Amino acid sequence: MTPIQVLLVDDNEADTDLMREILEASRLHLELATVPDGVEAINYLRKKGSYARAVRPDLILLDLNLPRKDGREVLQEIKEDPKLRLIPIVVMTSSAADADVVRSYSLGANCYVTKPVDWRAFQEIVKAIEGFWFVIVRLPPAEDSASDEALSH
User: Distance (Å, rounded) from C-alpha 47 to C-alpha 12?
Assistant: First the structure.
């Protein structure tokens, strides 16, 4: 069985560690890659530099408040790129501001989740995301040819 590829873009090391711990305990076969900022996220997705062998993610978990290039810019750049725009993006951030929610959806986010402060609530949210995106939802195929074919119709 091919593992589900997840890219986590978050500069908060504690959140990254917690996310990894929760996903590794999953019954699903998931592989989690992490990057700490928006510049690294775009390099990873475009397989630049040290990410030349990066695997295209099936889902991106994206924080908004990132160093170097913030999550809003990353979201916009991904959704404007024909080779990347079909990758579902879950914005998972500490911001509960209506302006961030509206802007994220207008830029093409597939989902917006406010990170809870409580560890158990965080765990439940990650499990809910996992159940929805990896059990219920059918994700687009990762092959570039499938994306190209869909775009040509």
Answer: 23
- The domain limits of the chain are 4-152
Looking at residues 44-65, what average pLDDT do you find? 93
Taking residue 48's Cβ as centre, other Cβ atoms within 10 Å add up to: 13
Which residues contact residue 124 at a Cβ distance below 8 angstroms, ignoring those fewer than 6 apart? none
Name the CATH superfamily, with its identifier, for domain 4-152: Response regulator (3.40.50.2300)
Tokens matching residue 79: 């959704």
SS3 102: helix
User: Which amino acid is present at 56?
Assistant: R
Mean pLDDT of the chain: 85
Q: Please, are residues 37 and 66 in contact by the beta-carbon 8 Å criterion?
A: yes
**What type of residue is 149?**
E
